[in-house]
Structures are given as C-alpha cells and as structure tokens.
Write the structure tokens for this entry.
Amino acid sequence: MKPRLREKYNNEIIKNLMTKLSLKNLHSVPKITKIVINMGLGADALDKKIIETCIKDISSISGQYPLVTKFKKSISNFKSRKGSNAGLKVTLRNDRMYEFVDRLVNIALPRIKDFKGLKDSSCDKFGNFSFGIKEHIIFPEINFDKVDRIRGLDITIVTSGQSKNDTVTLLKEFNFPIFKTAEKKKKKIKTIPTNQEKEKNG
C-alpha cells in the first residue's frame, strides 16, 4: 500500500502546482526527491554505547539505519581528528520519504514548544529546504524515559524546484507551516557633499 502523501501528491498536488505555478508540462512539476537527516555526536563521538543509542533513535525516527559520518579534516578547535566519528546521517527516498514527511508535519512539528513555523529563508535557490530541530524527542517514536540526552537534528528536504518559489509552494501543498520572512531594508549611506556640490546647491 502506497503512503498517504504519495497518493495525495499524484492525485491532487500535481494538479494544484500546475495551476499555481502556471506549468503546462507534467514533467516540470516540482517534487521532493530525497530527505537528508543529520545528527551531530559532538563529545559523545568516542562513546560506543551512546553512539548505539543515537543509532537506535535515528532508526526509529526515520525507519532506516543511519551511516556514521567521519571528519574529513582535523579541526583543533573542535578537538576532532581526521577519520574520527562526526555524526549520523540518513537519506530517505520514495515511500520512507513520504512517510517521514507525514509524521514530521502532522505530529512532530506541532509538538515543538512555542512553534511559530518554518522560515521561507530556509530555502536556497537550488531547491533545498534546510532547518534544524533542537529536540529529537518531538518524534513520537522516541521514548522520553529512555533518552540519556536531548539531541538536535538537521533536516534537508531536497526538491526538483527550479526556484525558491517552486520549492516553498510545493512544501506548502504538503502542509509545511512556512511563513514569509521580512526582507531586510538596505540602509542608505549618507554621503558628505563635496565643495563643488555645495556650490551648486547654493
């Protein structure tokens, strides 16, 4: 049985996007291609038991076993050595991707305290929408009583959108709570008039 949101995309969202984005070609309609979830390990990167716990948590949240990422360079400020454990990473596609979106939007995000939505500035021009979650316990799959430490997650939703508008419009169709951020006004730089300009102005 196909995930609910996959059916919704095929039966409803594609038609909506063709209208909203003024698209005539079915193949040009933006879609979610994959979702990447990252969890940094920090000081716990050397503790095997903690890593195992984190792997269980990520597996429960995503429905997929994560990869252990390694540092590519030694960074003295972070006390990290090249080749040492950096974090955990999961890349979701197809059905698991749609199932994750369903749980993320309808269950997890609403459980964030004082949650006001996701900023549209989290979207880049390449069709990626990235944001951080401070507490992984917002996911119902995590048993709070068994959590040794609350950890953060970085989530990147990769789409085939050709612009920021394409990506945001697509994600809103999946009920992502995205709000528009106010554009920063450019400050006018006051210039000191030259003697010639003073003379012209009287």
User: Anything to note?
Assistant: The chain has a mean pLDDT of 86. Residues 116 and 177 are 8 Å apart (CA to CA).
